[in-house]
Amino acid sequence: MAGSRVSCGLECSNIYELNDSLQESSKAGYDFLSIPLAHPRFTREHVDGKAKNRAGAFTRSDLLLSSSEWNSLIVGRLSPCPILNLESSNNSLRQNSENTVTQELTFAAHLGLPAIMFTLTTDRCCNIARLVHNRVVQGVCYQVWVRVPMQAPEELAAQYRSDKSPSEDGFGVDTWTWWNRFHSIANVEKKIGLALEVSADLPEQSVIDRWLGEPIRCAILPTSIWLTNKKGFPVLSRAHQQLVRGLFKLHVQFVVSGPLRHQHFKLYQQYLEHIIRAFSTPQVNQEMDPLMDFARGYEDYLQCPLQPLMDNLESQTYEVFEKDPVKYSEYERAMYLAICDKIPEEEKETKEIVLMVVGAGRGPLVRRALAAAKAGHRKIKIYAVEKNPNAVVTLQAQQDEDWGDQVTVVSCDMRDWDAPEKADILVSELLGSFGDNELSPECLDGAQKFMKEDGISIPCNYTSYLSPLQSPKLYNEIRNCREKDKHFLAHFETPYVVFLHNKKELAPSQALFTFSHPNKDKVIDNTRYKALQFQITEDNVVHGFGGYFEATLYKDVFLSIKPETHSRGMFSWFPILFPLKEPVPVRIGELLEVHFWRCTNRKNVWYEWCVTGPLVGSIHNPNGRAYTIGL
Known about the structure:
The protein has 17 helices and 26 strands. By secondary structure, the chain is α/β, with parallel strands linked by helices.
């Protein structure tokens, strides 16, 4: 984000000379203009009426600008009256409005505009949603920005209340429901985005967070919400500054609208640049999170979960994970405590313990184990067990050059190895984004046969967590992943590793499956089943479930990617996403119930999931038809 700049446009209610307006806005630092496609007072009648046969063009000529200028500098706005009349019960008025909107949409495509915008002022939007959706499905060059106020003004809200009396906060209508209804009717199309009009009085943070989970293309900042500082320049309140920064992180463009209330329009753009630059510069923002720095560019990018048991990881993959500033320092702390517990102070000169690193990779845990033993002045013997023959080359090189006889490198699958002696401490880093999804339970259950009775496993336990998510953007990303040679629902029955960004969590995460090591059960069974219920606190839509884990390495040494307890700065794991084939609408006060299964057979492990409340859905990934983890 450092070094990036804000993209800002200027909204004009009407334009006399288009070229002059473009030059003036460009000098003021704006990247584009938002203009009406036709004159606001130019009424057209297509069905009947006096203007039906009126001669002449309905709007300005495309020769005023070059194609490249139309393509990049102009956002067109549809006429407001036809939008309102599209829902009229008067057949003639409705048909005339439909023809007018179609005419403007067609002309926008002719010009090659990058985006067109129109305003929603009601939840009665079925016809405009149908028109826009059908046009998008046909294939158009432009995006559609649906302008919705963050909160409905009092005069508009009063139309929805039977008593017509002012509401307590002045905002009696949830305008998010307008947008959600429109977007749902339009099949949540990717080319249809939200143009969020920011209000002077911001709502509660939970309401703002719900808006931030939507696919916001631009934020409209009316000049009426700007304050004036002591020097006469426009500024935003701290709450508005925080909102602008949150929107900027979502790569949202900004549009300044309304009459000029300060010396010049360029002052608004300059102020936006100022607060974004202050937010983006590491020298100013001293608390840069290594996770945010690492994840830049990977926001909402879907990745297939790693399967290190089946696939040999590449050197580059090892290198990325070895750079984690938190994970390995915590592992070293856990090993230090375990080593000191195994060798009391009075026996440190005479006693030596055996520590086995299973799944040693290129040796980061081996190096940390040696450092922990050195810090504690204890003697240890290390076995580094690794099945990837390419990584074994690296381990053997380090053994020859640095480690010597203190480390024994074993090229073998830990489940098949016949160890020459038993381990006091067994260390592994087999955890996946969902805890058990890289088959840590199966691997460690197979390896625990060469642990002593009082042996210590690091990690000693881990728990997976789930939370329901709202994210139309991720839903669309998944919908576009369909592959010809796979089941037609496979893309919705596959979990994805993804850095969740443009989303909202609808309830705190809840614990799902727990695994402990060493496994003392007489009959080892790693299948699991659990049903979870989430209390819904606002009207929303569930598009999937975010998956996380917490792990206890040893005693109080703890790793977590759960949002509420995330180990700050750790980036080795992104969350896992379990999609839903059909978004589930939920209302305030309802219970969302989901069932999860962890299934196994001799060859594979897989998850199945199903929503049963408030609506009943079908099982996802039955028999692992779309996704399995190979043993």
